[in-house]
Design brief:
Layout lengths: L2 E4 L3 H12 L4 E5 L10 E3 L4 H7 L2 H5 L5 E2 L1 E5 L5 E4 L2 E2 L2 E2 L2 E4 L1 H14 L3 E4 L3 E7 L2 E7 L2 E4 L2 E4 L6 H5 L3 E4 L5 E8 L3 H4 L3 E5 L2 E9 L2 E8 L15 E2 L4 E4 L3 E4 L2 E2 L2 E3 L5 E2 L7 H22 L3 H33 L11
Parallel strand pairs: 1-2, 1-14, 2-10, 5-17, 14-24
Antiparallel strand pairs: 3-9, 4-9, 5-6, 7-8, 11-12, 12-13, 15-22, 16-19, 16-20, 16-21, 17-18, 18-19, 22-25, 23-24
Helix pairs in contact: 1-4, 1-7, 7-8
């Protein structure tokens, strides 16, 4: 086996697809049920070239996901619409991808390319030999591979086992999120991001008559939907996630790569989550292919990947730190904290 991918989200699926497209043998293990609830994703129109390269653009565009030409923002002044732009073909439009369906599209395509997908399979521990990762012990038994890619998310499955440094670049941050069903015409047109007391709120129509919301509150006071959505029917329990800004160092080494949230985490207001997931997966696959097919020095390839992904994280963290300045300045003195960049 050339590549073992741990995690079946967008980052893992992108890694598996890109490796399979290059002719590598790939196994992907996914511990969670494919029908579990996950928040919807807003996809910038700039993601379309990546979807085309992965071979899923037709399936995504025909899935019936809501499209939008931009988003509303209300941060330090009045509410404003920020359009994506356009060209001679018309306005550029993003997608609101229902997360579970989007993942199904990616994994189904990976399977058609020959990726062996093992669902409901827990990856327990990595296997190593002479300091090199050579596979993983899973619920289906040991799986040996020349390269292991951790795409299992912000729990940092591989990093914790290898005692890798996880550098934090913000105070502790957490979001709550949920999804409701009903009628809210004011939210139908486009996503809306607004600064609230002590944090921010994002709302969007992710399917007809279905609305997602995500809220970050530095004082942890709000765990219910925003007032305009509280009369609608909940589709799932309110969830939560740790979105403290953090990055692992290094992001690749002998026999392994980290992609998506396994590599780094920023809170959703960065709006690069899905782009980062797909791009880090595809970039890791690029380096693995260069090592296995072109004989490139693996130390050079793993260092190049770490440098690229870390620089991207640090740039976005610096932008977010500036954006958060208005939130921190509004809090009481005993709740303020400087954001490191």
């Amino acid at each position: 086996m050339d590549v073992l991918v741990v995690g079946g989200g967008p980052a893992g699926a992108a890694t598996a697809i890109a490796c399979a497209q290059a002719g590598l043998s790939v196994t992907l293990v996914e511990r969670g049920p494919a029908t579990s609830y996950r928040p919807g994703e807003s996809l910038h129109p700039g993601i379309e070239p990546l979807l085309e390269r992965l071979g899923v653009i037709a399936a995504v565009t025909s899935a019936g996901f809501p499209r939008h030409a931009g988003h509303w923002v209300q941060w330090d002044g009045p509410r404003q619409f920020q359009a994506f732009g356009g060209d001679a073909q018309g306005a550029w439009r993003g997608f609101h991808a229902w997360r579970v369906e989007f993942e199904h599209i990616l994994l189904d395509h990976a399977s058609r390319l020959g990726v062996s997908i093992r669902r409901h399979c827990q990856a327990d521990r990595v296997m190593s030999e002479s300091g090199r990762i050579i596979g993983a012990l899973t619920g289906d038994g040991p799986i040996r591979a020349r390269w292991v890619v951790d795409a299992a998310g912000g729990r940092h499955w591989l990093a914790r086992q290898r005692n890798l440094a996880v550098a934090r670049h913000s105070r502790p941050l957490a979001v709550t999120y949920g999804c409701v069903e009903g009628d809210s015409p004011d939210i139908d047109a486009a996503p809306f991001l607004r600064r609230m007391e002590g944090g921010w709120l994002w709302t969007a129509c992710v399917r007809p008559n279905t609305y997602a919301w995500v809220r970050l509150d530095l004082e942890h006071r709000y765990t219910a939907p925003p007032p305009e959505l509280q009369t609608l029917r909940p589709l799932c329990p309110v969830g939560g996630a740790n979105v403290t800004w953090r990055v692992v160092a290094p992001l690749a080494g002998p026999g392994w790569f980290l992609v998506g949230d396994a590599a780094s985490v920023l809170d959703p207001v960065a709006s690069h989550g899905m782009l980062k997931a797909l791009m880090t997966g595809m970039q890791a696959a690029y380096h693995i292919v260069r090592i296995l097919r072109a004989g490139a020095p693996e130390s050079l390839e793993t260092t190049s990947y770490t440098t690229w992904a870390t620089r991207w994280f640090r740039h976005d963290a610096a932008v977010l730190a500036e954006l958060y300045g208005t939130i921190y300045s509004a809090l009481r003195s005993d709740h303020t904290g400087a954001v490191k960049s």
